[in-house]
Design goal:
With about 375 residues, the chain is α/β, with parallel strands linked by helices. The chain is built from 14 helices and ten strands. The strands form two sheets. It has an eight-stranded parallel sheet with strand order 1-2-3-4-6-8-9-10. The structure holds alpha-D-psicofuranose and manganese (II) ion. The site of alpha-D-psicofuranose has 8 residues, from loops. Keywords: Isomerase, Manganese, Metal-binding.
Amino acid sequence: MTELAAVKAALKTQAVETPSWAYGNSGTRFKVFAQPGVPRNPREKLDDAAKVHEFTGVAPTVALHIPWDKVDDYGALAKHAEERGLKLGAINSNTFQDDDYKLGSICHPDAAVRRKAVDHLLECVDIMDATGSKDLKLWFADGTNYPGQDDVRERQDRLAEGLAEVYERLGDDQRMLLEYKFFEPAFYTTDVPDWGTAYAHCLKLGPKAQVVVDTGHHAPGTNIEFIVATLLREGKLGGFDFNSRFYADDDLMVGAADPFQLFRIMYEVVRGGGFTPDVAFMLDQCHNIEAKIPAIIRSVMNVQEATAKALLVDREALAAAQRSGDVLGANAVLMDAYNTDVRPLLREVREEMGLDADPIAAYLASGWAEKIAEERVGGQQAGWGA
Ligand code: PSV
Ligand code: MN
């Protein structure tokens, strides 16, 4: 196989998971702008996700968020997905939208609240059993706002205890992905603020616990690709929540704010052997002012472009330049790949997969947006928090 053929073959195996909540209405704490045709229930979210997969060919799974996607029959929901060529992906827990969680969930000072939070996580594993999902994605809003508010160290003990109980409940082929975020909604301390804390807990828990890197959850200037390289080296990179940030956790389209950073991350993924199904490539985004389905298609394409560029890096030339201390030469090898226009290559890949070369144009021409705007009237649109 030529090198280009190998790159194309790799791109055809790519899988980007889209989040159910990105199909619903969302906004900021100031305003949620409703859009016509937005899904009213989890099945309609899957119908939209199926369109993203139909036109990109590389978005075969959908992450659910519980309770936002709560249904009576998860087996039936999984079947609904399968009938549309999809599978259900990570189950995201929610321990941040209940009044009881004001002072935290599994780190809360009151054992009764901790019990409630752990029970919710265990319920999420039950749901995974029913949907066939492999990953439980955990993000905790836990933390404190004021120095002295709670015992920071004891909160870590409570966290470890709660996680251990959930870990024990995981099946052989199930994982727990622990997400970190440096601040918000807590502003003084956050109980899982960084990759080091997540890594320490995952290490203690065992091989089924891994770290998930949400690209929006870092302080400005953080070298995310270094974190990715380190976690991969330690066998602890479980996956990504991709999105873009300009300021904090903006949840904008991945690759929009800083496509170069996304390329650098994907290069470390490829370099570290992480371009495999063992690493979950998920989107975690909100489309507040742009049309949702084309925005998700665009996001998937942005990940594809960064991946294609990362795969095109001449690794031999790079290693040779690095070994000989050729600073500028090594940098040039990387930049050559980044500066390659991979859009023609991806158009070819899509055509070889039997797809339209231009997924967004094909979606816009499909009439789906008009159809859902006309049909989805009445009922309550899904939204962030519902
Ligand atoms: C938190 O900001 C987060 O990134 C977590 O992944 C949540 O599951 C997701 O957003 C949706 O609230
Ligand atoms: Mn996230």
